[in-house]
User: Fold this.
Amino acid sequence: MTRPISILTLAAVVTCLCACTSKSPTTPAPMQGPTIWHNPVPDAYGGLKRWNAVRFFRFDLVVRDGDGKELHRARHLWDKRTGDYRYEADAGAFAALPFADEEMHIWRPIDLELPPGALVALVNRATGEGRIYIDGQEQPATLVPRVLQRIDHDSFWLLLPFQTQGANLEGQIDRARGDKVLKLQYPVRPGQQGQDAWLLQLARDSWRITRTQLHPRNSYRHVIAEWSGEKKVGGLTFATIRKLDDGSLTFEHIALPRRVAGNVFTDVATPLP
Assistant:
């Protein structure tokens, strides 16, 4: 099926944001050998104690092309205590988003024909269960894992500063820039071949992330994102922009609601806060 050019552009932008660029990696700047650091990143954004105390978390993820045109918007609400999650997006734009093949680390379209309309997902991140609706009509259960994968992707890009715990960490110094660089590799999951490697460039004064470079496992390809923007709420700080040559991710409407409607995670018609 032929998709409008804006949808094709969306797929291209998000593929780059998700996985890699088509460029060969540049020669990295010389770095000093690994050093042992106290991990400063979570504290630079308000600390794990504050983040762990949050129950409800709300944000929008917006994908824009290189000209700043909005291609896709996803609205998120998470109950961290129960794992309940509400995700809303346009079904057509969602269908154009790439999804990962866990074994090959290849990103490709969802390969599911979705009717046009408003997609609402009522799922649980802890159990992996849930229901998906488009314009109020329930969709096949095969869509649930695709939505959960998209939720993981969107939230990871925003919450990376609070998710460095549990990773293998190695501190380095970028001699060319004089900045500190933190290398992260997360433990290998069963059946997974190799590890993704993340390089986090940290500002010398604040220890906040200014740049990330992802090297996917078993691939020479990589993706670089420049971090900017700031939203402070509840004693926490969130970086709101990830900029690439091909487009950007922007995080909007970040909030920590004290309470939400009791049926927001079970009723399609209940509006997000």
Q: What stands out?
A: The longest strand covers residues 56-65. Residues 144-159 form the longest helix (16 residues). The CA atoms of residues 98 and 108 lie 5 Å apart.
